[in-house]
Amino acid sequence: MNERKSGLRNAALMLLGCTLALTVFGLVMLYEVASPGRAAASVVSRQVVALILGAAGAGLVLWADYGWIRRLAWPLYSLAVGLLAYALVWGRVVNGARRWIYVAGVGFQPSDFAKVALLMALAAYCSSAGSRITSFKDGILKPALIVGLVTLLIFVEPDWGTALILGLAAAVMLLVAGIRLRYALIPSVLLTIAVGTALCYNGLRMERIDSWLDLESTRRVVGYQAWQARLAFASGGPVGLGFSASTQRAFVPECQTDFIFAIIGEEFGFLGSLLLLGAFAMILHAGLRIAREAPDRFGALLVTGISFLLAGQALCNMAVVSGALPNKGLTLPFVSQGGSNLMMMLVSVGVL
Questions:
Q1: Whose CA is closest to 21, among 252, 272, 246, 244?
Q2: What is residue 306's three-state secondary structure?
Q3: What is the model's pLDDT at position 64?
Q4: What is the distance of C-alpha 72 from the center of its chain?
Q5: Taking burial as the number of CB atoms within 10 A of a residue's CB, which of 60, 264, 299, 300 is the most buried?
Q6: 91: which DSSP letter?
Q7: How far apart are CA 88 and CA 68, in angstroms?
Q8: Is the dihedral of CA 303, 48, 240, 230 positive or negative?
Q9: Are strands 92-94 and 106-108 parallel, antiparallel or unpaired?
């Protein structure tokens, strides 16, 4: 019993330490890439407000009775679906995607909230299904409806990256819950074909893939952002140029959001990038340790899903920025600029 409590305490401290370190590091990097002058102060101040609200939300989750989290799963899921639908019809278009809702001049992305709401609902469903999760109806069809409704709404915004990562996190939860792989094979193949077909008919996505496959020939047009990121990594080398020594921050588009990892790689080098990757690996490790000691099936599944969501989004962002994957528009958790994303990431840590 003492060993169990000690292990949980160590995992919680590891999770808290990594989250705090990444968030503070993100604030410092945002101030640096947004410099000089008032722009940096404005960016950081908005991020600090999001940090305070997110920390308050995490504290509220910690304070609340555990049973309430499960009871709120379906109401929050319904709210998330409603917000996503609202954003598709009345949301503001930013960078070609209708994914923002503005209230009193403050914008947020419902997809950030929907990530946690979906994983809560899926955990609640799987824990209620019990042994029936091994059947095709209860293990494949019903979860497909739960996951598919949210991911489809996110997909058509369009936000392909978030839909993909969320779908993968949900798939991990279903595997842990005990679905039969043979039942999942055919639906997985059909889904892959459907996504591939949609991709072929999406001009922007195909341009990004073509650019990724032949970056040098498109470095002045579609591949400009990825090419400048590659130059940033090349400049950084093994140990980096040093803090605030970046020259590429003036050339990498969205270097405070999706591509902040490029500036980190330039200033702190390959070793610094490995340390950052290690921090997210530690978050995943801590989350899985907590999941193993969860009081019930709902908690174990929810913590597993959130852990893979955090680590998966970080890994995907790093892979995109480093050129291992085509651009998907995902932010780096806790580090990139983005108020609603930071708030929900912190609330997610509170759930863990």
A1: 272
A2: helix
A3: 79
A4: 22
A5: 264
A6: P
A7: 30
A8: positive
A9: unpaired
Please count the helices (runs of H) and the strands (runs of E) in the chain.
14, 3
Query: For tokens 């990530």, what's the residue?
Result: 115
Q: Are 115 and 162 in contact (CB under 8 A)?
A: yes
Q: Which phi and psi (to 5°) does residue 269 adopt? A: 70, -170
Q: What does the domain layout of the chain look like in residue ranges?
A: 2-351
Structural element, H or E, at residue 98: strand 97-103
How far apart (Å, rounded) are the C-alpha atoms in residues 85 and 350? 27
Structure tokens at 262: 């490029």
Q: Are 168 and 309 in contact (CB under 8 A)?
A: no
Residue 298 burial (CB count, 10 A): 21
- pTM (predicted TM-score): 0.92
Residue 23 CB partners (closer than 8 Å, separation 6+): 51, 334, 335, 342, 346
**φ, ψ for residue 19 (rounded to 5)?**
-65, -45
265 vs 273: CA distance, rounded Å:
6
What are 169-187's pLDDT values in tens digits? 999 999 999 898 888 888 8
Residue 205 has φ and ψ, to the nearest 5°, of -65, -40
CA atoms of 196 and 154, how far apart (whole Å) = 17
Phi, psi for residue 106 in degrees, rounded to 5: -105, 125
Nearest-angstrom CA–CA distance, 8 and 12 = 6
Range with the lowest mean pLDDT among 86-100, 219-233, 247-261, 286-300? 86-100
In order of 158, 281, 342, the CA distances from 92 in angstroms are: 13, 35, 20
Burial pattern 193-222, b for ≥16 Cβ within 10 A else e, equals eeeeeeeeeeeebebbbebbeebeebbeeb
Question: Helix or strand or coil: residue 93?
Answer: strand
What are the tens digits of pLDDT across the range 127-171?
A: 998 889 999 999 999 999 999 999 999 988 888 889 999 999 999
